[in-house]
Records
---
Amino acid sequence: MYKDVYEKWLHHPNLDPSYKEVLENMDEKEKSDAFYTTIEFGTAGMRGLLGPGTNRINIHTIRKANVGFAEYIVAHGKEAMERGVAIGYDNRHMSYEFAMDSAKVLATFNIRSYVFESLRPTPELSFAVRHFNCFGGIMVTASHNPKEYNGYKLYDEKGCQLVPALAQQVIDRVNAVEDELAITANPSADQEKLITVIGKDVDEEYYENVLSIQLNPNVNKDNVKIIFTPEHGTANIPVKEVYTRAGYHFVAVEEQCTPDPDFSNTPTPNPEEKGAYDLALEYAKREDADIILVCDPDADRMGVGVKHEGEWHLLTGNQSGAVLIEYIFSQLIDKDRMPNNPVMFNTVVTGDLGEKIADKYGVATEKTLTGFKFIGEKVAKYEKTNEKQYVFGYEESYGSLIKPFVRDKDAPQACLMLAEAACYYKEKGKTLVDVLYDLYAELGYYEESQTSLKLAGQEGAARIQEILATLRTSNVEAINGVKVTRFEDYKECRIVEDGKESELTGFTKSDVLKYYLEDGSWIAIRPSGTEPKCKFYYCVKGTSLEDAHSKTLAYQKAMDEMIK
């Protein structure tokens, strides 16, 4: 079947000329992978390899998505069309072109759009949706993926990524488009007037809101030096601007401040991977810095490095989240600013330490599925009912939201608060690692980690599904000799505990499995929604950090054996 679709693309009169030669030079495996399926929305929208094909991100698949989104907006009436859509984009190949083309496709449906004049962070796009009272938003980005990728994320009127029920309405319309190659982006002169270019006014409002999160704006900043890198992405100007206005001392990794779509000066733009810190560590040693802050290309994620006792420690997303929670909640209590009925949100694959800290400060924790849209959905719910008051939200994947004037992960906010925390604790003779170790001593020694099995292409996707199907039906009773006390299957919505089965409620169906173990640890497995990976999450509790690490390695080895 893929051969027929390939031939259709190759000979279609509307095929973008830039794709012709690429198609002609494909071998059979490349043809199959590019055309065997249609690229779909995952946990963070539509994301994939750049290039021609139905299973690729290109001008034609983007247009198809835009037609589906446009029809969804039109179905909500003239007011929705007039309120329109805010559109942002990052530094990647074709991001600008996809963004402008999106605005033109929407204009052909008489839908207004507000397009940023140049690259901007994902959180600022979310902010712009709210700022202009738009009906929705589009962000062209592949977040932390390698240079070969790009993507397309959709937002609702609250500036939150579309939750499954809304996304499905778009997907149904996208799937109904029979020929993506027949779509053109040729608005009339009057329709062109529906496209507005935006920039500095939104920037200023966003910066002011980011600066408003400070809890100790007058903290002594003179004794902390920060190394900051945007990894060639959109955090470059916003973080520098916020730090300058707030008075922090920072040195930018200049080689990584250019908006380079090839990420030429970094091994990886993903702060979850050690290579993202290589050049920043060189700067940090040369400058005798205290902390390193690394943002991914669309500035929703932030990674942290901390100098402690002369050595550099790279914190995981769980660890940096725990430090932020401890600092923010302790300050809210000390300043008598903790609201009534406070609530924190994280996900079913986020480690347990953050929840233990929240308990200590009387803050409830509610779990969501992976994907910050689910946290955004919770924020909107309590904003309406006023039953609980939002104080923090985070994922283990290096993303957090401090104040919900944005409804997505916000790295500029996180950078500002981490810098403040570093200054606050240095005045007390502590590093952020000291803070973390104090939390371990008080609440338990946790090693919270993640491993990934990368399986690309059609065969890889099939293998990932095979792994999950096998685990789902295997009735695993023990892992590494430790009894499984509870098993949760978020796809089949069931719980197995003490040999009895019950219904798992409160979550949209999702392909996630989670094993709770007798020693207080847990292991979760899920396919990535944005990359060709099967992810394994470990939250292991030990009598010491060394014990927790040893147990983690044993559990990882046991899981590797189980999926062979």
Note: Residues 398 and 427 are 26 Å apart (CA to CA).
---
Amino acid sequence: MFFVHLSSVRPEMPTDRRLRRFEKPNLRIAIVWAALSVLFLILGYQRIVAGEFPDPDDALRLVQVRDLIAGQGWFDLHQYRIAPPDGTLMHWSRLVDIPLAALIVLLSPIFGQAAAEVIASVAVPLLTLGVVLLAIGRLAWRLFDIRVATFACLACGLLGPLVFQLQPMRIDHHGWQIASTALALWALAGRNAVLGGALAGLALAAGATISLEILPVAAAFGGVLLLRWIRDYHQRWWLVAFMQAFALGQVGLFLLTRGVTDLAQHCDALSPAHLGFFVVTALATGFIAVLPRLPALVLLGFFSAAALAAAGFFAVSSPDCLQTPFGALDPVVYDFWYRNIAEGRPLWEQDLFAALPVLFQLLVGLIATLMIRARSRDWLAGWWSDYAVLLIAMIALSIFVWRSAAFTAVIATVPLGWLIAQWLDRLRKTESLRDKLVLASGIFIVLLPSAPLRAVQSVLPRTEMPVPVRQSQCDVTTQTAKLAGLPKGVIFAPFDIGPAILLESRHAVVATSHHRAQNAMRDVILAFTAPSAEARQIVTDHGADYVVLCTDLAEPRILAAANSDGLMAQLMQGKPPEWLVPVDMDGPESFRVWRLSPVPKPE
């Protein structure tokens, strides 16, 4: 119904952007960035003051940066306080550490390291937001005008996945991957095929270096450029430049961030086998491009052969990585840990009251894209066809892997900005009260679709839900800081509070929520779900000195429910076994600490 009122509205197609320089889009983008930054700071003020991170991965990122600043080698990605004494080789990239470490080193002499860390943790996500807005705003300005650019940028502050990943203190890698997606999207609107394709490839190469989860995004961009080639033979250089820049960018960034000290074939991070795969496909793409014009089916046949050749290289180089990175997880770790990470699961396994409003906004963005395509001519018609294909592919990806909704959301902002601008114009011009109410309702629902659902949810019967770590009533950051007063040791704890322990103290932990330490993760799960005697053996085998947990988090409840006679169930009931001695930390009842009593010597 909301879209009917646009059926007679023909968008004003853009003039050459070089004739509209008086509009000063960069200034408008900067104003929106400042406004959103202030809003994010106000909303996150209490968390910033308390030094609380939105997610445990953010705390562990700062731990990694601290270690780097303290002298740990650039190419040494171990976290030596996870699964000691050998530590755990992390799959994270140093690219994300660079801006954080640079700001902390620069500001520490002025404010002290503690304050510098807080400033960096606030500034870097807002800097990332600025990069995203610059790419989205400039793209929307080029395609439409400064008003649409403004609304497209504002839409970034109204899409849940973007707000979460770009908020202050969110210093893990997802924000920079969103930025790389936005930059690649901007590059696709360039006039020069070689330059535009190369810039898109380099942007996504940086995203892939940060984490392999962006590879499906890169595949979607590559697929769109292949469609350009099929549609117009002269557009083939887009894909050639993209593939070659993507491959060469990954090789260069691999050498920059990993060097040649670790050439093992890791399935969860960029490795030589991945580099070889993309180098083969890039070379094959260049070879196909110099051939005479080919029928579409023949062209697809050549690309299929190239893909098979690259896959064969990958299979020979790294046969263990033919399945997904999580496919090789220990069954215990898979069932108790991976299956409970909601963001990596499909849409239908999410909290639908939170997920469906996001999906609705993405679908509205797709509808708006199709409306723009129907009213476009010449090169814009093809461009918006590409955009629609890209958005459809990304929505499908989001449905199966919900964390990808953040990448999809940034692509949806431009058509959403156009739609909002059109509706506001229509609202201003119409004299019909009914039309005004319909349009105003449409704008409200598109911008804040969660509001109606939350109203419905408020009248439904309430069910008790486990508390996410970032909402724990045991005040993880404050309480784990008290652990610094205990003699240094190894702490046996559930995964989600491990990063806070590492950040706030010099203790080590047996495991965190990071799968490369899956053997230690398995032992933590088995110990907490085993009877007391078996649990004690596992805990002591890891040289643990303390057991720590927050009882109001989701993870302890899951472990306690697995075995009513297990260690975690005993601890949750306040009935610790005799080999655990309570330690009074003067904190909330939900934060509990025990030290291990000495193992009695045999007579």
Note: Residues 1-15 have pLDDT under 50 and may be disordered.
---
Amino acid sequence: MRARQLLAVAVLTVLLAGCSEDPGPEPRASDVATVARDQVKDGGTLRWAVEAVPATLNVFQPEATADSELLTEALLPHLFRWDDHARPTADPDYLAAAESTPAGQRPQTVTYRLNPKAVWTDGTPITAADFIAQWHALGEAADPAYRTDRPAGYAAIAAVTQGADAREVKVAFKQSYAGWRTLFSPLYPAAASATPAAFNQPLTNAPSAGPFTVKTYDRAGGRATVVRNPRWWGDPAKAEAIDFLATPAAKRLDALDQGTLDIAALTDAVDHATPAAQTNAAPPDAAAVAEASAQALRRAEALPGLKLHRAVAPAFAQLTLNGTRGPLADPAVRRAVARAVDRQRVAEAAVDPLGLTPVPLGHHLLMAGQDGYQDNSSAAGGASAAELLDQAGWHRGGAARTKDGKELALGLLIPEGSAGARRAADALTAGLAEAGITLRPQAVPAESFLKDHLATGEYDLALFSWPAGQDATGAATRYGKPRPGPDGLPVIGRNYARTGSEEIDQLIAQADAELDPAARRALLQEADARIWQVAHSVPLYQRPDLVAVRTEVANAGAFGFATPRFQDLGLRRG
């Protein structure tokens, strides 16, 4: 059986080698002010902007935000560190060893050997009990009273047990899981997961086990202060404290200019800059939005005593095609739309004004620089948009194509107030017009974009961004074929395109369960090729990440996929 699987993978690799394109230049994966530890002062407080002090530090609760994730990097165990190309390395502060049974051996069992020095701030050792409690809260058989969206991977676990002693953990899987390195990160103390009542409460004061621990947590006042963990066993934190300060995007440039922040992400501050002359009477026009964004960027670049770091974020912009609506219900029309999109043109429009090299994205499952990335867009076929539309009966008699007297016109949802989305929409509109397809962009407020349009199917095309995972496991939630629910209606999950195939589902499932790296890469290429062929969506570009850092601050910036090493952050010597 294993030999047949490997033979099939080899065949897929050969097939895809013929249709993949030259990967071309890679976007900048990270931009960090890297300084050796011995050149960083001991002491001092860093001031880091967050959108808001999060309601919870439990990243598995529905109320968790990206700021929850950020704070846990400083406070809680993450078993693996990831570099800017999303390559994992076991973190020796937490793991003495971590080994999985080899590919082909069933069942898969992962053995963690914990660092014997690792303890929670209340003095309790980190042990197998913490892993067991977390699995009981997140696994497939968990009590439904636990309020969580069941993160990917935990359902594949059959059992979590103590090994030779309390510092050894055995995780046995029901089916192999290639993304096992993403599990139990962050890790919470057993008491925080022991019961639904404990798990569901807002988590702000549980014991931590990182280089920092919480000193104050003031949501109303907009400040969470973390200080050196006196029980930390690793390299001591250079900074004495970090203040995470609630500073909405619109106020960050002023705060930096006034000297009240040291580190601040500015992508939204630039992209959603408000035109000076805006009134409440009507939304600003595209020219005013573009000019406001350009002014905000120039200001960010000129802030005294600060450097603007630029890289691509672990997120990507995608054009999603609603396969159940109007002309897009015809696969040939969807393929024509996908073929008509000039991804380079769109990337240049969205990214180039922000000072980053515009690199179009050619993969739905992997980002440029990740292991196995290649541009598979040519898997969609060689027929032009014009040929596909002619075959589908949409003929050109003027600027736009028509069929049975109806113009081929499609609505395009874009996020309201985003200069980058407007530039991308303009590029898409111009490109599709060349194929005889009329686009009608519609700017929609963030609060209704998902619930009133994506979730309900009330749209034709939608331009929005997805976060990119450190590996491709869990892709079935976005690309899995919708299945009938108990009421007979399709359950779409996060597959807002509402299209898919049995083959895509099987390939993603096989890739998620494949432990051999080469075989897994080949399965991911084939799955991606099939997603291109059903014209589910068009990946466009990786989102820019702009981060302002005060020049005396060391080891901060635009991290990309990389894990920040909080114990190395601080102020430069000299």
Note: The chain is about 30% helix and 20% strand.
---
Amino acid sequence: MINIRSFLVFAFDLAAVLIAWIGAFVLRFNLEWPRAFHAEIAYGALILMAVQLAACRWAGLYRGMWSFASLPDLRRLIRAVGISVIAVLALAAFDGTWLLIPRSIVLLYPLLLIMIMGGGRIAWRLWKESRLLPVSDAERKPVVIVGAGTAGAMLLRELARSPDWKVVAMVDDDRHKRGLELSGCRVEGATIDLPAILRRHGARHVILAMPSASAEALQAVTRLATEAGAALFTIPGLAELMSGRVAINMMRPVKIEDLLGRESVRIDNDNVRAMLTGKRILVTGAGGSIGSELCRQLARFEPACVVLLESSEFALYMIEQWFGEHRPEVPIVRLAGDVKDESRMTQVFAEHRPQVVFHAAAYKHVPLMEVGNAWQAVRNNVAGTLTVARAARDAEAERFVLISTDKAVNPTNVMGATKRIAEMVCEVLQNGPGTTRFHVVRFGNVLGSTGSVIPKFQAQIAHGGPVTVTHPEINRYFMSIPEAAQLVLQAAAMGQGGEIFVLDMGAPVKIVDLARNMIRLSGFTEDEIRIEFTGLRPGEKLYEELLADAEETLPTPHEKLRIARSRTVPDGLYEGVLAWLAQGPQEDEAVRAGLKRWVPEYEPRG
């Protein structure tokens, strides 16, 4: 059955050849009908229509949709017309022996043909786009685009089709672009002019079209837009756009992660794959923030089995559901269990024989562990690590990876001191009998993790404030959860045993600045949502460190990983810690005294 659309396109192109051929003769003879050239016009038109159809098929001109006619279609059209030019030259070569073709026709005909064929396609696209936008400009929301580069141009073209948005202006800090127009839209100024431009056009929305902009630039635009009362959106990053997973017009509100300037992580997939593919893997704390993301990252590398160990029934259920929905092909084992339960750990390792163990189970909330729960922190973070690590050694696991924290450096709180002892326990086991390699990965706060400051601020803003910050100068290192999980895998793959890997956490962020940015991103000002300073909490540091004073770092092949050369583990630590744990529950002050014995740099802060 003949496709009506294809038939109409063929008919249009045939008509275009006929009109261009006759038009060339009419123009050649000053808009008079060339009576002496009837044979040339008739025979030439028949030959050229046949040639042109074949040329259009060869050039792929009929693969394009007129509704989306673009530069690639123009290139195909020019290739097709080029074949017609060759045909006209061949006709002209006869020069009186058969047909007499004036030389000027060789130039006039292809020019007219390109104008008619190209113009028809462009006119159709314009008509279709006008039909796709039944709403008037008055009904479309005015928006200002920040960034007049490639991403801005792509976004502008996409939004021209949108029934919801009308781009009224663009801004860019490149002074050479100011005053110029992009697809009919004027670059009216620099980003500093954004508030005035928004007021002039009555716009309440801003879209950032700067996928590679620095965190400082994003923060500046965010401040200007929110102070002007405009909602702020951004487009996907360059990596997402290049991968084809998302389109340029898939906008989303700017998130706090965008303003922290964390770059995407590059990991050595080959080495990580060699470590994980076909292996049995155990993740403790598999339902927690880091543990669950580790599981999601591990699933990409085709493990033989992932054993999910979690003490929280609900958290275990949630990560199980994720695998069922997103990675049903990955075999999983769902185990409820407590890392402090030695008999349960022995059973798990004997039954499943994991080859790679990621120990993410821990108590991590500093103030909660500081008062009334100090001994529980010791049991979970020290005894739990010791139990799982020994079980891994006895089961001859290939690798054991401890997820540690920057709070283990010169600790001022119970949680940090217990994690430092856990690190030292792993160092002792690395130097003992057995073939298991023990690694430690130490990093700071992860964005959006359970109990972290960002979910807390979000809840406070949602309730109308105030947003509580402990001290105006307090700062912290931040990293996204996927970034942290990927670097843990990278560290495990390159480790030889006994290392403490330190992740590049970038520059520290002032918590008060974080609070201000979150208030702005939520569409409020500090007059509407105030910030309240509450004072440092028990055990809380003003500034966090990633390395102790006496430690040095060594570079690794990965730019975001370094190896810390930590203090020597005190003699007798292993036996001493075992004896200490055997004493049973202790009061908070006794716990602090015990921690001070094994971690001399521990300085409790009330």
Note: Residues 64-69, 238-248 have pLDDT under 50 and may be disordered.
